[in-house]
Prior knowledge:
By secondary structure, this protein is of the alpha/beta class. Helix content is 43%, strand content 16%. The strands form 3 sheets. The chain has a 6-stranded parallel beta sheet with strand order 2-1-3-4-5-11. Strands 7-6-8-9 form a 4-stranded parallel beta sheet, with helices on both faces. The chain has a two-stranded antiparallel sheet with strand order 10-12. Helix 5 (80-92) links the parallel strand 1 (68-73) and strand 2 (98-103). It is elongated, with a radius of gyration of 25 Å. 41% of the residues are buried. Mean pLDDT is 90; it is low at 1-5.
Amino acid sequence: MNSKNKRPLTLRDVSEASGVSEMTVSRVLRNKGDVSEATRKKVQDAAKRLGYVPNKIAGALASQRVNLVGVIIPSLGNMVFPEVLAGISQVLEDTDLQPVVGVTDYLPEKEEKVLFEMLSWRPSGVIIAGLEHSEASRAMLERAGIPVVEIMDTDGEPVDACVGISHRRAGRKMAEAIIAAGYKKIGFMGTKMPLDHRARKRFEGFTRTLAKAGIEIADQEFYSGGSALAKGREMTAKMIARSPDLDFLYYSNDMIGAGGLLYLLEKGIDVPGQIGLAGFNGVELLDGLPRQLATMDACRREIGIKAAQIIAAHNAGETPVDGPVISLSPKLAYGDTLRRS
């Protein structure tokens, strides 16, 4: 390997290659100071030709901060979070900030570890999914001394700021639509909820609203791991076999709902006449299904955009205009599987 003989490039190398002083090179690469466009382009072209990458750690020693934003999410396999990340990237690409992602797998102890590692780099901000954290994680967030934005949920007290939807309200709105459509014997299928707090809150809002109308969940089934589409088919088959009189199935996410829909259509069951269906998240990937699944948009990209705007505003020395709690309003889509009242 001849790379061991190569020394790291310095500002002097870029200075010599561009014919510009080191101070001017530094200003251009930090995007600071008044530099002509011709000089800026000369420096940038030289840096690109050499393959120069600035040493941000050196600057961080003085500022005690690096230009990284820690983004901590529970899963990359869940199609919800890539769209959130897209919203974050859309905003931060116009700033000096760079998102760095950590994954917790919905495990509090893993969240502690990821958060500890992220904060040890002294990032300029943290965006983290959920409002529920271990005592250790919450203490780290409270004492980080940087803007912290908790995302996806507004049913609780944020450490600093939060952006999301009220999942209890989302569950309530879905229950109201189901009741208004005349369905009465309802089955529920979803993930195991002790660690998926947002699914639990939707379930709470859903069941409380049904109870006020004198309706109880007639059957329920929970799963963890594995293919969501396959699990949706499997759980739906089991539930229909043991509770054939059900007239509506509510799924905690669109993917298992899609599996259920495919199973019912395969069996020739009339949807939504004989049985209605609904999921949650508004996943565009499912637009190609034989029938459009009723669902509720979780405002994923907008959540990412708003969260990143809060971090960017703080780092620009500005006050975020929307306040510390931004509660977005998801929209119910009836699709082809939920009768309109």
